[in-house]
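hiii, so i know i said id send this last week but things got crazy w the move. better late than never?? heres the sequnce for the chain we talked about at the cafe, plus the structure i predicted for it. fair warning i was half asleep when i ran it
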Amino acid sequence: MSHTFYERLSALDASFLGFEEQNTHWHEAAVMVFDAGPLRTEHGGLDFEKILLNYEWCFDRVPRYRQRLVKIPLFDHPIWVDDASFNVRYHVRQIALPQPADDRVLKRVCGYLLELPLDIDKPPWEVWVVDGLENDRFALVTKIHHCMADGISGMRIIQTLLGRRPFERKGRPKAWKPRPAPERAELVATELVRRIQAPFELLAPLRRPSAALQEARDVVQGLMEASKLGWRAATKTPFNPDNVGPHRRFDWTEVSMREIKDVRSGLGGTINDVVLTTAAGSFGRYLREHETSTDEIDFRTLIPVSVRKDKEKGLGNRVAMIMAQLPVGERDPAARLERVIETTQKLKHSKQALGVSWLEGLADRIGGRFFAQLSRSATRNRPFNVVITNVPGPSMPLYFLGSEMQAIYPMMPLFPNQAFALAVLSYAGKVFWGFNSDWDALPDVHDIVEGIGEQFQELHTAAQARACGNQKSTAIPTRS
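okay and structure toks below
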């Protein structure tokens, strides 16, 4: 007799389904560029069957690849069930670029591929194998719905396909048999019991009154900190149209990790502080060039912060969304970094993430629809201007079968009134920046991309000057 299976989405996971609208599709993505030589066939094309086989070997390690979404009757809450009709060839597709194809051509193609919605009635992921990139390279454009994974767990999914050295797949993986989903009555009964038990679970901490009181104080403080920014609109800018259009531009750049560490050593802060400072400089320049004053602007970024425990390896989303003001009006790079460091230090000591996490936990117990509606209402009030996410990646080179991954550019989706999102990921000595934007609202997004390089160079120069000044001040004078 087959055992039934389903897995309930958390309130946060379910909320990302709620952000799906006609022009805003809530998948995250990555464009990975590889050396094509090891995967070329004798006729010159990519060995697509080998690529498919590598994916099939990973499905047992990531069962979510073969699961689809359904709703619990009456309660309308989404759950994962095995997809009895799963077909890997629907999800992994192959296209070729017109020749000669440089990165500019790839960026335009990626913009089109990434603006297309995923089919939510099937397992919500797809991969495009893009051949024909100059210098004998190919790209994997992978899309995963945000309800399936956050940045860190999404990177773990990608890494199941990769190895630290070239490898081969021999033979075929074992046959897969989907588990049947429970009957409607069982789903309804189980969810009803869950809802009835929810109040008692909320009262459980009261068994430890002193600890519960301190936790309650911290949660209230965190909710108040979040509400100070969350319910007050940020300054309206070109980054914030009333409604996002259907077309996307996807662009990218990269910065040396060694040079970022030079800045950190010379001026202080963390790698994330350097990223935020560089982005703030580019945003400020772009706004001034578009006749938007940055002198007294209230410009904010939404920052997803991982609350995943060290040994927690599950999928889904384990993040708290916090907000921070960015000093886009500060033109001096060193002073801008100092202000960013001050802001992030306050965030580290704040209870904002705890308050948001508690709210997510409450929604899990009383029903995710509440949290989804709250999230949609809050974002419609324009509490932030842009989203910036920074995900740590592997420091060593990785391989897809025999092909080395040369670059990986991450992508974050857009909210309905937010035309720009920046995702940053470190890998093998470089930091890769992925810029997702609404083509109609920001047709010149490449100016922001170029600004990243220019602003970082200014910051790096300031760090070198500071380091030289410190060396001179500490040098021992010699007698004449």
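btw Residues 474-480 have pLDDT under 50 and may be disordered. thought thatd interest u
miss u guys!!
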